């Protein structure tokens, strides 16, 4: 789950983040935070990483483990609070189990891109309403997002936005049906709740790699 969620955020970042994005803020320090950072650093030439977590020791450990790994910069800063992590960041990834917004959207810089992967029920709201209102919103699946993503359901129920505020599904950007980012100052937000096709794609890659490396056992059911 963590790998395919990181991969889809990487795809969203490739399609929506500014090409000159160089800094990333990670909110959260669990396994999802790890793959979010790896994916973002794979698709953009990231030079600065800031991590914030309610568990500072876990954040420090994550920073120590990931610094310099693959495309990740050799130095990672543990931020004292979420807003200081987000301030001036080109890309923000939230990967928490919080039921309330984890940063103040007014701190987002023009042109920032946000990946929200933590909230997965109608009552969970990782991203605040100001961020949603300011952003071009892209989801992995409209029906799934409208059924599960409190980040979008709550502002819709409060009458702040309508369902039409969801600009596109990620697949529509891949297919060229929607252009994505309009200009360098636009804030973009990708909300992932996870869909079965992502699991199927991840499983297919795992099987292909296993076969190529002569790993595992083939059984007949």
Structural commentary:
The chain has helices at 2-16, 31-43, 56-66, 82-86, 129-134, 142-148, 150-157, 170-174, 196-212, and strands at 23-27, 48-52, 76-78, 91-94, 113-116, 135-139, 166-169, 187-191. It is of the alpha/beta class and 221 residues long. Helix 2 links the parallel strand 1 (23-27) and strand 2. Helix 1 crosses helix 9. The radius of gyration is 17 Å and the shape is globular. The two termini are 25 Å apart.
From the structure above, extract its key features.
single chain, 221 residues, alpha/beta, eight-stranded parallel sheet, 9 helices, 16% strand
Order of helices and strands: HEHEHEHEEHEHHEHEH
Order of strands across the widest beta sheet? 3-2-1-4-5-8-6-7
| Strand elements, count | 8
Write down the Rg: 17 Å
Based on secondary structure, the structural category is alpha/beta
Q: What fraction of the residues are assigned to beta strands by DSSP?
A: 15-25%
The general outline is globular
Number of helices: 9
The biggest sheet amounts to: 8 strands, parallel
| Separation of the first and last Cα atoms | 25 Å
Oligomer: single chain
- Taking pLDDT < 50 over at least 5 consecutive residues as the criterion, the unreliable ranges are none
Helical content band: 25-40%
What average pLDDT do the residues reach?
93
